[in-house]
Design goal:
The strands form two sheets. Strands 5, 6, 7, 8 and 9 form a five-stranded antiparallel β-sheet that branches. By secondary structure, this protein is of the alpha+beta class. Mean pLDDT is 86; it is low at 199-203. 41% of the residues lie in helices and 18% in strands. 36% of the residues are buried. The chain folds into two domains: 2-73, no CATH class; 80-299, no CATH class. Helix 2 (84-96) crosses helix 6, helix 3 (99-118) packs across helix 8 and helix 6 packs antiparallel against helix 8 (253-274). It holds the Pfam family DUF7958. InterPro entries: DUF7958.
Length: 319
């Protein structure tokens, strides 16, 4: 993908870009990302007449244009929780938490999953229709990081990408060990080893979270997504990330924490895939991320690779 800003007025920003198929796209969008003008020279104008790959190129070009304006001009043209930098920082925060802190924020996931498998008391009640209808559902929780976009940018500069991603990979390994007595000490030592212990707040990940929502439940019937939202904090902005976890039976809180960190890494991967950009090597991971994108990969399997499949072999140079 290659893009340039072609102009700006009081209402819109213009972008010209070449997609991964060398087709040209001309786009004008408002400052909230709504596309008001669009033309391209590589595919049929009618969406129904496009090939699967043509539809993918058009969709990716539009997402990339929004991200490009967000990066270059600072307008909120994408949802905050579709910023791969925010998702990477959120994964870093969760991976650095000790088990008690993780449970304080995200324990409702564990309680709810144990309700499914061990008849524990539920954290939230499940709508009756989910017991009787064949529908896909999952649980979600919004994460509000304790710093704004400027803070995110400073952290991205401060924690250079290879160091952060290497730390995340090693943190997942530590969490997979599942020894509650040693995980906290190992994470502290790991942060020191990678030079993160000397960074401001590096060992205080709880301070990086301003708030979390209650546990939400969402389900899909056909093309429609439904949900019941719980305990949304009174914060005048959208969340920086949203954990989206499928019901399963984690062996321990440490196993759930590992799964949550990996989910956020997969979501960051999805952000790159949906705009046609090869993810950085440490984010070239497989498994379920954003459930909206998992639905894409399954429904449009002729065009998208199965990034959601943990066992898939992916050609990362051709997303």
């Amino acid at each position: 993908m290659k893009a340039v800003i072609t102009g700006e007025n009081d209402e819109r920003v213009g972008v010209n870009l070449l997609d991964n198929n060398d087709a040209e796209h001309v786009i004008e969008m408002e400052f909230d990302g709504e596309i008001k003008y669009y033309e391209q020279d590589g595919y049929p104008d009618e969406p129904s007449e496009r090939s699967p790959d043509g539809s993918r190129h058009v969709t990716q070009a539009q997402h990339y244009a929004k991200y490009y304006v967000y990066q270059e001009k600072g307008y909120q043209t994408i949802p905050a929780r579709e910023d791969p930098d925010r998702l990477t920082i959120a994964a870093l925060v969760l991976s650095a938490m000790d088990t008690d802190t993780f449970e304080e924020y995200f324990g409702p996931f564990y309680q709810q999953f144990k309700h499914h498998t061990e008849d524990a008391e539920p954290a939230i009640e499940i709508p009756e229709k989910l017991y009787t209808e064949d529908v896909f559902y999952y649980y979600a929780m919004d994460i509000y990081l304790g710093f704004g976009r400027d803070g995110i940018a400073k952290l991205v500069e401060q924690f250079d990408e290879p160091v952060v991603q290497e730390y995340l990979d090693e943190a997942e390994r530590v969490l997979a060990g599942g020894d509650a007595a040693t995980v906290a000490d190992e994470l502290t030592a790991l942060a020191s080893e990678h030079g993160l212990a000397e960074r401001e707040q590096a060992l205080e990940p709880a301070d990086w979270i301003e708030a979390t929502s209650g546990l939400h439940i969402k389900w899909q019937i056909g093309d429609e997504l439904y949900g019941e939202l719980n305990d949304e904090p009174a914060i005048d902005r959208g969340p920086d990330a949203q954990l989206e976890l499928i019901p399963h039976n984690p062996d321990s809180l440490e196993a759930l924490q590992e799964y949550a960190v990996h989910n956020l890494k997969c979501q960051a991967r999805d952000c790159y895939v949906q705009m046609g950009v090869t993810p950085p090597e440490p984010l070239q991971v497989t498994g379920p991320g954003m459930n909206r994108l998992t639905d894409w990969y399954q429904r449009f399997a002729d065009s998208f690779q199965p990034y959601h499949d943990p066992d898939a072999e992916i050609d990362w140079e051709n997303v």
